[in-house]
Amino acid sequence: MAPLGMLLGMLMTSCFTFCLGHKNLKEFALTNPEESSTKETERKETTAEEELDPTVLEVFHPTHEWQALRPGHAVPAGSHVRLNLQTGAREVKLQDEDKLRNNLKGLKKGKRLDINTNTYTSQDLKSALAKFKEGADMESSKEDKARQAKVKRLFRPIEELKKDFEELNVVIETDMQIMVRLINKFNSSNSSLEEKIAALFDLEYYVHQMDNAQDLLSFGGLQVVINGLNSTEPLLKEYAAFVLGAAFSSNPKVQVEAIEGGALQKLLVVLATEQSLTAKKKVLFALCSLLRHFPYAQQQFLKLGGLHVLRSLVQEKGMEVLAVRVVTLLYDLVTEKMFAEEEAELMRETSPEKLQQYRQVHLLPGLQEQGWCEITAHLLALPEHDAREKVLQTLGALLATCRDRYRQDPQLNRTLVTLQAEYQALAALELQDGEDEGYFWELLGSINSLLKELR
Fold first, then answer.
1. Where is the secretion signal located (predicted)?
2. Which residues does residue 81 pair with via DSSP β-bridges, in sequence order?
3. What is the CATH number of domain 154-291?
């Protein structure tokens, strides 16, 4: 029994010792996974904070070449920092001396040089952008106000100007008021000859506009100018015709009123009587403006012996310049009627009013009867190329009516042959200069066509 008791006691002692040792081993183990992980995280955060702490940043010394900027480096003031878009790294170098000097001047003036390289959150950027837009709007508003103030300084309201002009006895007039004043001055017996001529000269400027020319009818101004053609003063006749020519041009309403007011008769009388060349130029200009695109006026022109008046004018010595203008007028009237007939045929209109009016204009028979075939042909002897061109055009337009007369005129054939040789040489010179179809080549073509038709 004694040995058994001793064995049992030893066994209990061993168990107690083993349990106590296992407890101490747990308390004093070298590693605990959970606690070790937590301590490692705390250590890294502390290290990162220490790295980002500006008090422990390492100062970077840039050069004039770009160098990569590593985390933890502090950049000296005035350095040039950029983001390399290819590598994604920030790079730094020293600024150029001129830029650095300008930046230092800016600092001295109180401007802030922002070299902060910290990143911003999206909310910071949105807030900054909103402030930027507000600032831009304020700047735009300030600019608008400044511009408006400048305009007010430079320009004044029309009401103030009118008031000032009234105080100075100066009245702002409309075109209508100006024309009334000019007509009154021209028609006044108290106005001198120079004042009347000046009034007509100014009036011609205004009646170029269609509306102003029609307004001239509303207060009887047109009739006053037409009556001016009866003046005994040659200059008044000349300038009155000048005003009428400007008012008639492409203005049917004024043309009708002029015919009813006797303008056509008065113009023909001035052309038929002895006047200066400049006066007859102005009167012929007014006559051409009245006749063009107005078939009724053309009928009246033929009835009043207008072709006879023009023939006498062309044959008058020293009126060669007017002869070319007369031939041009005849060409325009002949082709105008032809175009009206062709237009009606294309539109399949058998009896439009305009065509009926042109059919009552018997211009071509009148030209043949009064010898215009020969008159036009003899004008080819004029030396100017431009005059010859217009005569050739008219000869072509009259060819159907004057063919027999042309063939019986030996002088016309000789003139055409002479001109053919002359223009062949001139066309050859044009060809040498690189002009395939120049001005003289076209004139040569017109001459060749006439010669072909007359053979």
1. 1-21
2. 92
3. 1.25.10.10
